[in-house]
Every structure is written in C-alpha cells, then in structure tokens.
C-alpha cells in the first residue's frame, strides 16, 4: 500500500529557529579591496546574510556588483563616524582608508574614522550583543625595533608625524576594543594585518605592489623609493580573508598578526615584477616619504598555533593573478 504519511509541516517555532540559524554579518568598509573579497567569501555560505556599510571614499559599488539585488545581501551608504542602528550577530569592522595617499589626504577624517567609527561600532556591538573584529595594522609597530614583529611588541610610533592619523588611530581603536571588552564584556577580535595585495586594489592608490604592476603594464619605469633596501611582507588577499574568518570564528581575542612572512626589499619586489610582467621595463630610484618603516615582517607563530592558519599563495603566484585583473581594468592585453 501507499504511505499515508502527511507532508512535513514545520511548526512556527521550528521555522523561527531555522530563521535564527542565519548569521547576520555587518561588514564596514565592505566596498573596499579586502572588504569586498571578504563579502564574496561570506556570501558563499547560504546561512549568512551580509550587510555592507561604506561611504565609498576609497571603495566602490563596482567591487560588489555581483551581489547587488541578492536576497541575502544589503548595501548601505553610511559613514561610520555617525551612529548606526542595525541588528546583527557579527561585525567585521574594516572601514578606514588603507593607502598612505588616501589616509594622508584628510588626516583629521582618518583619525575620526578610526576613533569615532570604532566607538560607534563598539556601541552597536554592545547594544545587540554582536562579536566584533577590528582590522588593525602592522603600522601599530611603527618603525619597529624588534624583527620580525611579535604581537607582544609595543611598537615604535611617531605620535605627531604625517602617518600618525593612521597608526595612532589604529592604536586607539585597539585600546577602545579592549576597554569595551574589559568594561562591557564585548566579544572582540583584533587582526594586525600586514601588507596585502590582489585583484581590485585601487590602480592609482600609490601602494607599492599596485604601483609596480600598473607601471610594468603601462611600460613606465618602476619607481623604487629610496633607499630601496626597506622591506615588506606581502600577503595575497584570499589568504588574508581566510585568516580573518578563522580569527572571527575562533576563541582568541588577539591581537594576532595576519600576514605573509616572506620578506622582500623594494628592489627585489621591483625585479620580481619586472621579470614576471615586463622584462624590458626600467627600474628607477625616487624620493621616499617621511617616517617610512625600514623593515616589516610578521611573526605568525600565534596565527599558526591558535588559528591553524598560514598563507598559501607565494608572491610569484599572486603577482600574475593581480596582473590579469589590472590588464582587464587598464584595457592592455599581454603581448604574445
Ligand atoms: P580600502 O581603502 O580598499 O577599503 C576601505 C573601505 O572603507 C573603503 O571601501 C572605504 O570607502 C571605506 N571607508 C573609509 N572610511 C569610511 C568611513 N568613514 N565610513 C564608511 N566607510 C569608510 O582598504 P583595504 O586595503 O581594503 O583595507 C581594509 C582594512 O584593512 C582597513 O581597516 C585597513 O586599515 C586594514 N589594513 C589593510 C592593509 C592592506 O595592506 N591593504 C594593511 C593593514 C591593514
Ligand atoms: N551607537 C551606535 N549604534 C548602536 C549603539 C550605539 O552607533 O546601536 C553609538 C552611540 O551613538 C555612541 C557609541 O556608539 O556614540 C558608543 O555607544 P555606547 O552605548 O557604548 O556609549 P554612550 O552612548 O553611552 O556614550
Ligand atoms: N614604495 C616604493 N615605490 C612606490 C610606492 C611605495 O618603493 O611606488 C615603497 C615605500 O617607500 C615603502 C613600501 O614601498 O617602503 C611600501 O609602501 P606602501 O605605501 O605600499 O605601504 P606601507 O607599508 O608603507 O603602508
């Protein structure tokens, strides 16, 4: 005989539970470089609803065009220096210009974004009981006297220099995070991000990897700022996003360094880009800007041990992926 079992009819309680199983995630600065890659990854999980707030200072809707109109996605034009009322379970707080050209353009606005923006997001986290992750920066170590940099190093930062709006701003943001944690029991996560690169970086934002790749494609000389022996460590954006999500989902507040420990001088970086993209391009020396850190390389022992994370993409593999994106946006095909 045929089964007379009735079709499943979920009780209102069960549907409410199912609904609650959805995770509502706020990403501030989600229209930017790292933020938009983070949104891509979060949207792949069907249990996530993602809300982006961004004032489009350095980001663009174009970075999120694949999600506009999606039922689990919302985009709000909003400046985080103003209060924000939304109901969410997690907050990835990225909003802040990251490139020196942009953060020095309006330094007062940069420090307001770091201080008032982070305060508002913490007030929001407190009201709704959300966990909040701050993307801090290796710049909190300043021109470091400890190499490679471990999280317990307090840094060597100029409090009144032209970069201070950014690095001191992030240091205050970290302080606010820990004070809300200690005083109000807010669940916090702090990532100290080291130089990150990849597709969707602003082409003319002045950062070294985007500069060299755009210059090599345009057949313009690669501008190594003096002395050229200063070092940086470059993390590909997919590795970065993976580290941020592991930190958010894990049990440790941080701060935790997230970056690629492969260390290069700017001359070595120029030579690598030249070899991969345009062997005929010139490399020239130009003036540097004040307070440029001489060396920077993360110690990622904590990320390895506490998050089970380490970067997978080497610079030599990441540069061609970024070249492809830049060629498309610049409309310059690779010569056969
Ligand atoms: P980005 O400039 O591409 O993105 C920042 C986003 O924040 C942009 O979309 C911008 O429009 C938005 N924004 C800026 N001020 C805002 C405000 N007041 N209100 C609302 N939105 C605002 O930079 P990114 O490289 O994606 O960096 C993201 C985060 O990671 C930043 O917090 C940055 O400090 C941090 N970080 C980045 C790097 C790196 O190498 N890219 C290194 C260390 C730390
Ligand atoms: N805030 C916000 N959204 C909220 C709750 C608070 O933007 O949902 C802002 C609020 O306007 C304040 C900041 O967060 O400027 C800090 O809030 P908190 O409640 O911690 O401090 P208070 O309002 O008591 O100064
Ligand atoms: N730099 C360079 N040529 C450029 C742009 C930057 O040599 O066209 C150098 C700069 O002097 C610094 C390093 O690259 O030592 C990284 O600079 P960037 O602005 O990318 O990031 P930072 O780590 O300083 O925030």
From TrEMBL:
Protein EC: 4.1.1.35
Keyword Cytoplasm (UniProt): yes
Record-annotated NAD(P)-binding domain positions: 26-321
An example molecular function term from Gene Ontology annotations: NAD+ binding
Pathway(s): Nucleotide-sugar biosynthesis; UDP-alpha-D-xylose biosynthesis; UDP-alpha-D-xylose from UDP-alpha-D-glucuronate: step 1/1
GO cellular component, one term: cytoplasm
Gene Ontology BP term (one): UDP-D-xylose biosynthetic process
SUPFAM superfamilies registered for this protein in UniProt: NAD(P)-binding Rossmann-fold domains (SSF51735)
Cofactor(s), names only, from the UniProt record: NAD(+)
InterPro entries on file: NAD(P)-bd_dom, NAD(P)-bd_dom_sf, UXS-like
Keyword flag Lyase: yes
Top-level class of the enzyme under EC nomenclature: lyase
Keywords: Cytoplasm, Decarboxylase, Lyase, NAD
Compartment list: Cytoplasm
Source species, domain of life: Eukaryota
Coiled coil (residue ranges): none
Reaction(s) the record says it catalyses: UDP-alpha-D-glucuronate + H(+) = UDP-alpha-D-xylose + CO2
Principal subcellular localisation of the protein: cytoplasm
Function of the protein: Catalyzes the NAD-dependent decarboxylation of UDP-glucuronic acid to UDP-xylose. Necessary for the biosynthesis of the core tetrasaccharide in glycosaminoglycan biosynthesis.
Family listed: Belongs to the NAD(P)-dependent epimerase/dehydratase family. UDP-glucuronic acid decarboxylase subfamily.
The protein's name: UDP-glucuronate decarboxylase
Lineage: Eukaryota, Viridiplantae, Streptophyta, Embryophyta, Tracheophyta
């Amino acid at each position: 005989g045929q089964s007379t079992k009735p079709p499943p009819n979920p009780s209102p309680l069960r549907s409410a539970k199912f609904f609650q199983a959805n995770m509502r995630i706020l990403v501030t600065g989600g229209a930017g470089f790292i933020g938009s890659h983070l949104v891509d990854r979060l949207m792949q999980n069907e249990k996530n609803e993602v809300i982006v707030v961004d004032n489009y200072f350095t980001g663009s809707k174009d970075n999120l065009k694949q999600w506009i109109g999606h039922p689990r996605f919302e985009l709000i034009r909003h400046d985080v220096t103003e209060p924000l009322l939304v109901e969410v379970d997690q907050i990835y707080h990225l909003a802040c210009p990251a490139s020196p050209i942009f953060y020095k353009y309006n330094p007062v606005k940069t420090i307001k974004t770091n201080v008032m923006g982070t305060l508002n997001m913490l007030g929001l986290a407190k009201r709704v009981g959300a966990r909040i992750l701050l993307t801090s920066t290796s710049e909190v170590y300043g021109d470091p006297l400890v190499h490679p940099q471990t999280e317990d190093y307090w840094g060597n930062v100029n409090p009144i220099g032209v970069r201070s709006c950014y690095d001191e701003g992030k240091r205050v943001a970290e302080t606010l995070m820990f004070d809300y944690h200690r005083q109000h029991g807010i669940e916090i996560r702090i990532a100290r991000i080291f130089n990150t690169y990849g597709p969707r970086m602003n082409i003319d934002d002045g950062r070294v990897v985007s500069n060299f790749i755009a210059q090599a494609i345009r057949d313009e000389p690669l501008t190594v700022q003096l002395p050229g022996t200063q070092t940086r460590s470059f993390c590909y954006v997919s590795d970065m996003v993976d580290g941020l999500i592991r930190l958010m989902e894990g049990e440790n507040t941080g701060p935790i360094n997230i970056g690629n420990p492969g260390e290069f001088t700017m001359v070595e970086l120029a030579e690598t880009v030249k070899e991969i993209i345009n062997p005929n391009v010139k490399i020239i020396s130009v003036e540097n800007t004040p307070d440029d850190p001489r060396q920077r390389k993360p110690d990622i022992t904590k990320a390895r041990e506490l998050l089970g994370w380490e970067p997978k993409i080497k610079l030599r593999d990441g540069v061609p992926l970024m070249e492809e994106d830049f060629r498309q946006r610049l409309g310059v095909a690779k010569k056969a």
